[in-house]
């Protein structure tokens, strides 16, 4: 038996151990990326094999947050895909403005860059005072970092360019303070954000939302799990509510996608079509 | 007979011209899927798709998340995402951190393809200014696949093929103009 096959056995055992020991189920994650992340985690934790990582994880519960963080957190940036944020600013927010109270769910908020991007858009549109953003993630560590809003200053230049390209009418620097090699997001932007742990694999409807952002999260999920999460989004959105996915995500294999109509297909912005299907009570 | 099922190609600086020569030289009878990772600063692969479609007898398109890998088709890794292949021959994307300072990374694509296609894979490293692809090519060889490296002397930027040779070695180290005929021969034999 050669190394990839041995590793596949180790990955399956790791996933099973994580589920049985701590209740987190990664069995529906897309295998190729999951394996990469598990391998990287073993390297970071200086385990010679994935089995070594499994052993440490089983016997050392304080390691769990680090394990979950390693398995879930993708890289992000502020105003990533500026064209999408520009469309939110110019097309979507004006439609949301008709609601007296706006609820936004950012599912899989990672380290919070998009949460703050969104808060800035809302602030500049004059809608933030009547908005509530629910920012959720599986990883508590990610939520902590998101709440702190401290990022490496080297990212600022790219983020400023993104902000301008997204139609920003100030300077991004108005929203953070820089010190040493770090930038800290203005804490006032946090005033209508609630950070909370939520597991897309297992948890259900979280709030009634007018807009859901879940960008580049479902790319890590298998087809059945992607479909499940889309159903949760469908059941969470108000009629005609908006859903934003990552720019290269495909809905071609999800039956729940039938509930969504493209608002801007190219930017992966969708709207809940008609009444969501609900069972008779 | 180990007829290859897929070909993975990595290139960076100078890659577009090299790809035109190679993709343009593929036989119309090629039954293999071709996956290309080309470092680029542009936000979409539309232009590269267009340029390659003009010279290619096989259809050229951007790889789409979750879609099956089809034979006789050339796929480009989308800009900003790592491209991986699942064991059931479907594409997967990832925005995990850059590898070798780049995303998409050739190494990520090579590693994942090597596990899926093993000895039925051809890996190709072309011109470029960094070392991405070297370790992935080593993985391809260690799992029984075939490695082709563009001869550094025929590369616009020799760093990448040289790094691949230093790390992984090669089954074939040939000039740019000889790569497509070699692939046709290996695949149609």
TrEMBL record, chain B:
Q: Where is the signal peptide?
A: none
What's one Pfam family here? CheB_methylest
Q: Per the UniProt record, which EC number(s) apply here?
A: 3.1.1.61
Q: Which InterPro entries match?
A: CheB_C, Sig_transdc_resp-reg_Me-estase
Record-linked CDD domains = CheB
Write down the chemical reaction(s) this protein catalyses.
Answer: [protein]-L-glutamate 5-O-methyl ester + H2O = L-glutamyl-[protein] + methanol + H(+)
Q: Which UniProt keywords apply?
A: Chemotaxis, Hydrolase
Q: Which residues form the CheB-type methylesterase domain?
A: 1-180
Has keyword Disulfide bond? no
Q: Which PROSITE patterns match?
A: CHEB (PS50122)
Q: Does the keyword DNA repair apply?
A: no
Record protein name field: protein-glutamate methylesterase
Q: Which organism is it from?
A: Dyella flava
């Amino acid at each position: 038996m050669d190394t990839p096959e041995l590793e596949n056995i180790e990955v399956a055992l790791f996933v099973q151990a994580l589920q049985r020991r701590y209740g987190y189920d990664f069995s529906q994650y897309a295998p190729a990326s999951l394996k990469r992340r598990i391998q990287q985690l073993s390297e970071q934790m200086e385990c010679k094999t994935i089995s070594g990582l499994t052993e440490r994880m089983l016997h050392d519960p304080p390691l769990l947050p680090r394990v979950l963080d390693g398995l879930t957190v993708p890289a992000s940036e502020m105003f990533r895909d500026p064209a999408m944020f520009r469309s939110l600013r110019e097309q979507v927010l004006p439609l949301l403005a008709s609601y007296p109270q706006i609820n936004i769910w950012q599912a899989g908020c990672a380290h919070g860059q998009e949460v703050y991007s969104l808060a800035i858009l809302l602030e500049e549109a004059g809608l933030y005072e009547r908005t509530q953003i629910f920012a959720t993630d599986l990883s508590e560590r990610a939520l902590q970092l998101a709440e702190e809003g401290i990022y490496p200053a080297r990212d600022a230049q790219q983020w400023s360019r993104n902000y301008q390209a997204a139609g920003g009418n100030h300077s991004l620097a108005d929203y953070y303070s820089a010190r040493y090699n770090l930038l800290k997001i203005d804490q006032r932007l946090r005033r209508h954000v609630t950070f909370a742990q939520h597991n897309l694999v297992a948890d259900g409807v979280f709030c009634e939302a007018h807009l859901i952002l879940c960008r580049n999260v479902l790319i890590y999920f298998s087809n059945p799990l992607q479909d499940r999460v889309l159903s949760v989004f469908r059941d969470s959105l108000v009629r005609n509510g908006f859903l934003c996915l990552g720019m290269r995500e495909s809905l071609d294999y999800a039956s729940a996608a039938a509930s969504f109509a493209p608002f801007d297909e190219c930017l992966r912005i969708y709207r809940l079509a008609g009444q969501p299907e609900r069972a008779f009570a | 007979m180990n007829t290859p099922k897929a070909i993975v190609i990595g290139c960076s600086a100078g890659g577009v011209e090299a790809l035109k020569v190679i993709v343009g030289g593929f036989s119309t009878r090629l039954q293999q899927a071709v996956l290309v990772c080309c470092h680029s600063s542009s936000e979409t692969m539309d232009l590269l798709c267009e340029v390659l479609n003009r010279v290619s007898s096989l259809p050229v398109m951007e790889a789409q998340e979750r879609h099956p890998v089809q034979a006789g088709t050339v796929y480009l890794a989308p800009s900003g995402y790592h491209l991986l292949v699942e064991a059931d021959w479907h594409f997967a994307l990832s925005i995990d951190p850059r590898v070798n300072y780049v995303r998409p990374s050739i190494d990520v694509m090579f590693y994942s393809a090597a596990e899926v296609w093993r000895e039925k894979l051809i890996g190709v490293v072309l011109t470029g200014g960094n070392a991405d692809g070297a370790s992935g090519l080593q993985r391809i060889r260690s799992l029984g696949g075939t490695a082709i490296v563009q001869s550094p002397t025929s590369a616009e930027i020799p760093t990448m093929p040289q790094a691949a040779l230093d790390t992984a070695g090669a089954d074939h180290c040939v000039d740019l103009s000889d790569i497509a005929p070699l692939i046709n021969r290996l695949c149609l034999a």
